[in-house]
Amino acid sequence: MNFKKIKTKIFNEGNNLAAFIKAHIPALKDGSIIVLSSKIAALSENRTVANLTEKEFEKLIEKESSAAVKTALCYFTIKDGMVMTNAGLDRSNSKDKKVILLPADSYACARALRKELMKIYKIKKLGVIITDSMILPLRAGVIGAAVGYSGFKGVKNYVGKKDIYKRKLEMTMTDIADSLAAAATLLMGEGDEQTPLCVIENAPVVFVGKDKKDEIKYPLKHDLYYPFFKKFLK
């Protein structure tokens, strides 16, 4: 599996996302996966807000999330079936100190971009991952996660299969989409690297023509962290 980060010009609000990718990635092999930061996806949709007071910023976080609780450092939120800080709202790497939201629908954005890029590059198999940062419980620092993806199976299910000692697995699943997002984000960086794109080749994924809706989203009440979540759910 090969990862290649892509140095780019600054992506400005309202720019065409597919054209920007083509300008910086002239050729793409069939069976590749393009990883892009949620910031440039959101900027392409003009998903920014200017001149927010701190109170307005907090109100917007609550509006954008399905659950939110204020902590010492930020808001702990659930957004579109995923745990993240501040519902994905961010002021870093933002022109004119605007707040950048997540894309209106990251999965729809990934699907539409994939469809357009397949035509541009004239390929039949392509994956797209839109990434954002997330914090793991009891771990310092952030990792990349997939807020949206398209074109491949995002979860590998081992339930019912056997381990090396022939015991049947009852719970194990591999989160492929987030695993790829985390590895790509490690190369793309979180600061002034100006590398919002990454190309993955030879990834161990199953490409699909039609995405399976919500395959990566786990039922809240069955989740490992539900005892903690239920204390602040709306």
Short recap of the structure:
The chain has 234 residues and is α+β, with helices and mostly antiparallel strands. It is built from six helices and twelve strands. The protein is globular and about 60 Å long.
Would you write up a description of this structure?
With 234 residues, the chain is α+β, with helices and mostly antiparallel strands. Helix content is 25%, strand content 24%. The strands form 4 sheets. Strands 1-12-2-8-9 form a 5-stranded mixed beta sheet. It has a 3-stranded antiparallel beta sheet with strand order 4-5-6, covered by helices on one side.
Q: Residue-averaged pLDDT, rounded?
A: 94
Our count of helices gives 6
Strand order of the largest sheet: 1-12-2-8-9
Distance between the termini: 42 Å
- The poorly predicted ranges are none
User: What gross morphology would you assign?
Assistant: globular
According to DSSP, the number of beta strands is: 12
- Helical content class: 25-40%
Strand % is: 15-25%
| Helix-strand sequence | EHEHEHEEEEHEEEEHEH
Strand-pairing-aware structural class: alpha+beta
Characterize the biggest β-sheet.
5 strands, mixed
Radius of gyration: 18 Å
SSE order and pairing:
Blueprint: E1 2-6, H1 17-24, E2 32-37, H2 38-44, E3 48-49, H3 54-64, E4 67-70, E5 75-79, E6 82-85, E7 99-100, H4 106-121, E8 126-134, E9 143-150, E10 155-157, E11 173-175, H5 176-188, E12 197-201, H6 226-229
Parallel strand pairs: 2-8
Antiparallel strand pairs: 1-12, 2-12, 3-7, 4-5, 5-6, 8-9, 10-11
